[in-house]
UniProtKB/TrEMBL annotation:
Gene Ontology molecular functions: aspartic-type endopeptidase activity
InterPro entries on file: Prepilin_IV_endopep_pep (IPR000045)
KW Membrane (keyword) present: yes
Entry EC number(s): 3.4.23.43
Record keywords, A-Z: Hydrolase, Membrane, Transmembrane, Transmembrane helix
Domain Prepilin type IV endopeptidase peptidase positions: 15-115
Pfam families tied to this protein: Peptidase_A24
Protein name per the record: Prepilin peptidase
Organism: Roseovarius pelagicus
Domain of life: Bacteria
Transmembrane segments: 35-54, 61-80, 100-121, 142-162
Length: 164
């Protein structure tokens, strides 16, 4: 992995609660709170100064801008939700560019697992554990925050364990 174990360990305790919040919120109300996105960006802005060399810090901020612009276009085209686009942009600076392929694999596995688990729960008695969740009644719509938050969390955990 290109991310250093040190930087992943710096980020992980701050980012993990936000990832859990995003997953829970998207399951519950099918929205990723703007406050969660702002918190994630603020974590990078503050902790990134400690966790990364300054040149990497600046390039990672460029990643945020690029992902935000791509997300805006994808949202305008109806491909993803606005909250998903904003979360992806705020998560982008935590990812080492050299780990992009690995991140895609983690996201793909997370999407398969998350979608399958959500649909199994939706159509079984597991749904009764949280009967008021909006994600149960949104037809084909899926709470992507579950998988986006999970992907960032898994990436940072793997980075802390196996990072450069």
């Amino acid at each position: 992995m290109q991310i250093t174990a040190s930087s992943a360990m710096w980020f992980l305790p701050f980012v993990l609660p936000v990832c859990l919040w995003v997953a829970w919120s998207d399951l519950r109300v099918m929205k990723i709170p703007n406050l969660a996105v702002l918190a994630l960006a603020a974590i990078f802005l503050i902790v990134g100064l400690i966790a990364l060399p300054f040149d990497q810090y600046i390039w990672r901020l460029v990643q945020l801008i690029i992902v935000l612009l791509v997300g805006i276009v994808m949202n305008a085209a109806g491909l993803i939700g606005a909250g998903d686009a904003k979360f992806a942009a705020a998560a982008a600076p935590f990812i080492a560019l050299g780990d992009l392929r690995l991140l895609c694999v983690i996201l793909a596995a997370n999407l398969l697992a998350g979608f399958t688990a959500h649909r199994i729960a939706k159509y079984t008695s597991l749904r009764q554990l949280a009967p008021e969740w909006e994600s149960w009644s949104r037809g084909k719509k899926f709470p992507m925050g579950l998988c986006l938050g999970g992907t960032l969390a898994i990436y940072l955990v793997l980075g802390a364990l196996y990072g450069a």
